Amino acid sequence: MKKLLFAILLGALFVSCSKVPAGNVGIKFYLLGKDKGVDYEALGPGRYWIGINEELFLFPTQRQNKVWSDDEEGNRGFEFQSKEGMKLSANVGIEYQIEEVNVPRVFEMYKKGCEEISNIVLRNAVRDAFNKASSTRTAEQMYGEGKISFIEEVKKIATEKAAEKYIKLNDIYLLGNVGVPESVTIALNNKIKAMQEAEQRENEIRGAEAQAKKDIAKAEGEAKSLLTKAKAEAEANRIISNSLTPTLVEYEKIKQWNGILPQVQGSGASIVNLK
C-alpha cells in the first residue's frame, strides 16, 4: 500500500514538473488567489514545478517569420490605395522577435501565443503602415523605381508601432512585386518601352555623329596627303625646269642618238649641232 501511494505521488510529481525547452521562456499564470494573473518573472530553459493553481505558457524567444500571401487556403496579403485612389496589393513577409525581458508584458497584454499575436497585432501594424505610406505615393512610384523607398517607409512605420507593443520587428519584405491594375502595368510597360527606344535612337545619333567625325577626319587626311604630294611634284618639276639649259638638252639628244643619220632631212636641219 505504501509503495502504491509512493508511486502515485511520484507520478503526480512528474506530471506537475514542466519543461521549458531551449529557445523559449516560460510564463507562469496564477489561476486563483491574490496573485491571480501573470508572473513577471520569465522562466528560462529547464524543468519547473507547476502547482495546481498555476499554468505554464511557452513563448519562443528566437526570431520568428510570418508570411501573408494570397493562396488556395484562403490566406490573404494586403490591399491598400495609392495617392490617386487606385487599388493595389502586396504579398508580404516579416521577421520579428519578442525579447525575453518583454515576454511577460506581451502575454499580459494579449493573453495569446506568437501565432495569434503575429496574425492580429503585427498584421494590424503592417496593414496600417502600408495604408499610411501608400497614401502619399502614386501607383507608378510604388511599382517602379520608388518601390524600395516605399517598403522602407512601411518598415519604419510598422517597426515603431510594434515597439509600442514590446515586439521587435526586424524586417519587412515583399514577396514579388506590388500588385497593380492591368491598365497601370500596360501603361508602365509602354513608358519603359518608349524610354528604351528613345535611348536607342540617342545611341544611334551618337554613333552617326562619331562616324561622321571619323569620315571628316579621313577626308581631311586624304586631302592633306594629296596636297602634300602635289606640292612635292610641283617642287620637283620646278627644280627640273630650272635645270634644263640648251646645252643640257643637246647633250641629252646626243646620248639618245644611235649614230645613224635620218634618211630624210630638211634643208639645213641637223640632229646634232656641229658648231
Describe this protein's structure:
With 275 residues, the protein is of the alpha+beta class. The protein has three domains: 13-60; 64-180, 2-Layer Sandwich (Tetrahydropterin Synthase, Chain A); 182-230. Helices cover 51% and strands 18% of the residues. The chain is built from seven helices and ten strands. The chain has helices spanning 2-16, 103-110, 114-134, 139-143, 147-164, 182-243, 246-256, and strands spanning 17-20, 24-30, 37-38, 46-49, 54-60, 64-68, 78-81, 87-90, 92-97, 168-174. A three-stranded antiparallel sheet has the order 3-2-5. The chain has a three-stranded antiparallel sheet with strand order 6-9-10. A hairpin with a 5-residue loop joins strand 7 and strand 8. The N and C termini lie far apart (173 Å). 16% of the residues are buried. Mean pLDDT is 77; it is low at 4-15.
Outline the secondary-structure elements.
Elements: H1 2-16, E1 17-20, E2 24-30, E3 37-38, E4 46-49, E5 54-60, E6 64-68, E7 78-81, E8 87-90, E9 92-97, H2 103-110, H3 114-134, H4 139-143, H5 147-164, E10 168-174, H6 182-243, H7 246-256
